[in-house]
Design goal:
Number of helices: 12
Radius of gyration: 23 Å
Helix content: 40-55%
Number of strands: 5
Order of helices and strands: HHEHEHEHEHEHHHHHH
Distance between the termini: 52 Å
Mean pLDDT: 94
Strand order of the largest sheet: 1-2-3-4-5
Low-confidence stretches: none
Structural class: alpha/beta
Length: about 290
């Protein structure tokens, strides 16, 4: 296991609990190996090196290093949130060396250790079959699948995260409207009862209820600044490329952009225009 952050450490522990022998490398925490080269020496063929590191340069550097130290028949697994185009390229590069490459979308977050990780694997049948024992240990029952050829795992995870954006935004807007009412509603209570029998019940709602219990119904100690890690953007780009309308996912991404603005210049422009054409009052800057 390369990368022992929140996901990688949980996956390592779950695999060890399931009887697998795991060697590890992460330069920031205690590991069994001090380098990827040493890690490769600790494994017996066919070696499996599973990357759980940030997408982009970190993944690329680790992938290229592993290609130089692994042998034909070994397997590189990318379990991060890489762009599926990069995964298809890496699969082709690995194939030239006789090394297998499997892209695995991983969902489960910090709860995966206890609940299991949902796994979406893309790649060749031979490599996926070799990984089946690990998949079966990491995932809950019926929680993993070989979803298609190279790139399919990360493509499915990309769309999964785009859907997640939309679901989160729908909950966010609904609870803001509940809070804005003058009815003295207990948001934690409402989130709680919606978990049972309601058509909008979900794990996200369970987590929202837990957040209200932890932080209070006003969430006063949480700033409304929402990052995005790229998958929502890629989902929209692919939707444009395939002429597929995704208005909810697009709007949810733009809502995240809006959350990061202390002041919206677009709103200033709109206020100025209302004053100009209608004589409407404007508020001065603080």
């Amino acid at each position: 296991m390369v990368g022992l952050g929140r996901m990688g450490s949980g996956m390592t522990e779950r695999l060890e609990r399931g009887g697998h022998t795991i060697q590890t490398f992460d330069p920031n925490v205690p590991s069994t190996a001090g380098s990827l080269e040493e890690l490769a020496q600790q494994l017996e063929p066919p070696r499996v090196a599973w990357l759980m590191v940030p997408a982009g340069e970190v993944t690329e550097d680790a992938f290229q290093t592993l290609l130089g130290v692994l042998d034909p028949g070994d397997v590189i697994v990318d379990g991060g949130n890489s762009n599926f185009h990069d995964s298809q390229r890496r699969h082709a590069e690995a194939q030239e060396r006789g090394v297998h490459f499997v892209d695995v979308g991983v969902s489960g977050g910090v709860w995966g250790l206890r609940e299991g990780f949902c796994l979406m694997a893309g790649g060749d049948e031979e490599a996926v079959t070799l990984l089946e024992p690990a998949f079966a240990t990491l995932a809950p029952e019926d929680g993993w699948a070989h979803v298609g050829p190279s790139g399919a795992g990360h493509f499915v995870k990309m769309v999964h995260n785009g859907i997640e954006y939309g679901l989160m935004q729908a909950y966010a807007e609904g609870f803001e409207l509940l809070r804005a009412s003058e009815l003295g509603l207990d948001l934690g209570q409402i989130a709680g009862i919606w978990r049972y029998g309601s058509v909008v019940r979900s794990w996200l709602l369970d987590l929202l209820h837990a957040a209200f219990e932890q932080h209070g119904s006003g969430l006063d100690d949480i700033r409304g600044y929402v990052e995005d890690s790229g998958e929502g953007r890629w989902t929209i780009e692919e939707a444009i490329a395939h002429d597929v309308p995704v208005p909810v996912i697009a709007a949810s991404l733009f809502a995240r952009f809006s959350s990061r603005q202390d002041e919206s210049f677009a709103a200033q422009v709109a206020a100025a225009l209302r004053q100009q054409f209608g004589g409407h009052a404007v508020r001065g800057a603080d």
